[in-house]
Amino acid sequence: MAGNTSTPGATVVSRALALLYAFDEQHPRLSLTELARRADLPAPTVHRLVQDLVAGGALERSTGRHFTIGRRLWDVGVLSPVPTGLQHVASPFLNDIHATTRATVHLAIRDGTRVLYVERLSGRASVPAVSRAGSRLPLHATGVGKVLLAHAPEDVREAVFADLPRLTPYTVVQPQRLREQLAEVRRQGYATTVEEMTLGACSIAVPIVATARDGADPVVVAALGVVVPSLSRDRTRHLTALQVAARGIGRSLR
To answer: Keywords assigned by UniProt (predicted)?
Structure first.
């Protein structure tokens, strides 16, 4: 379930949040019945709260008695300081990569056990990609995701290892093999995937490292990657462009 708030003592706010959190990439449109099931709330409660959320612009009525996330939530969401600040700093570097490689460019951060795509620039090549700005995908099956997972806390890695869905025949779903890959990512400084998220799409990604002004240890704050039809050619050119951009972004974020 998207949220279990049917227990005694649940507040109106927690119930409203459960309704909003019921929406995800696989469920962008939901009926009242589906909302009640995914939020684990009684139908009368859902009906009353949905009316308030629609009136406030947090939800919008769609066709066929369905509901979607409202535009007002988007207006509020873009005020989040981490993604928007990162986007502002990274934007010129992303454009440089795009101009150099003509590939699909991704800027991403880790959101729990998922990779959150902060920005996406589409490439000219016809490469299938399921990502879009604001979407979340599994960490273990994407280039930017593997970079972020390699530098994530141990408890996050263990949580991901416990659930490794196979998305294509080439997705790595063996925990030990993935551990070895992540160790290699930390050693070599970049990650690659070959048709692990989508057939016909390969990726290469690098970490964006920021250093605090007070001298604290550098931390990986985001990942930068490109999606291409194949890594057999132009691999070095793509990697060099990513590394140069990542260093520039990291210095700007200091």
So the answer is: DNA-binding, Transcription, Transcription regulation
